[in-house]
Amino acid sequence: MSLPGIPSTNNTWIIFVVFGCILIYNLVYKVTDYFSLQRNFLESSELTLYEIEKKSKERTLIFNKVDSIKKLNSSFPNDSLYLNIKIKLLKETTDELTEHEAKFDSLIQSYEVSEVKYKNEKTFLVHDLLGSIFLGIVGLVLIIFGINKLQKNQTIRDAVLYSDYLKLKVRDPFCQSCGMDLRYDNKFDNNSNYCSFCFDGKKFNHVNIEIQEFRNLIEKQLIIKGFTVKQRKSKLKEVNKLGRWIQKFDWES
């Protein structure tokens, strides 16, 4: 049920804020994906480049080994034994070099494939990220607009309700002196917060009275009206919380 002058619902603006938050979350997720892709590629590349560098050094050692074997011929030109050893060593070294070259080429190819894959994924993510940035801006606008509307509606509610409150002749449903329900006071004039037993419209009926004495008077009235012991205790316990006894001023004034 809506009150005149008060916005009936905030559902639309709440949906704006929630949808805006979803779009912002999507943007954060895409940004995280983008940097995660870069980080993973860099880590993978560092490892692959380390392996390539390692294989390159091994390759240099093998070539040096081949050069050393070739020099055997000049040292022992007519010795068949050393010639056989040289051929055997050259064959082993050639096989080692062939195997090494295959692994080296495989590493280079793997790096090139991963680089192409990274570039393709990065291009896709950049386009996706640009779209998400646009949606994120839309989400931010929705959040700001929604919160602004919610605050405006709340301000209107507060203003209308406070205006209605100021128009009320009675601020509290219970007498702020004895706690009586003002709806059941036939002599209540609707111009104060006090019942006819406590207040005559201009001044209090019981002035310069201590709260305990006043409790005794209230208890007598409650007994007359048929309240049980438990009900009387509950009522009397609340008296010191009422406006008259919280405020400090001269009741005769």
Portion in beta strands = under 5%
Largest sheet: none
Which class of the largest domain in CATH terms?
Answer: Mainly Alpha
Rg result: 46 Å
Discrete helix count: 5
Number of domains: 2
Shape: rod-shaped
SS class: mainly alpha
> Average pLDDT, to the nearest integer?
79
State the share of residues found in helices, binned by percent.
over 70%
Describe the structure.
The structure is a single chain. The protein has helices at 11-75, 80-167, 211-224, 229-237, 243-246. With 253 residues, it is mainly alpha-helical. The chain has two domains: 11-167, Helix Hairpins, CATH 1.10.287; 182-246, no CATH class. It is rod-shaped and about 140 Å long. The chain starts with 10 loop residues before the first helix and ends in a 7-residue tail after the last helix. Mean pLDDT is 79; it is low at 1-5 and 248-253.
Brief digest:
This protein is mainly α and 253 residues long. It has helices spanning 11-75, 80-167, 211-224, 229-237, 243-246. The chain has five helices and no strands.
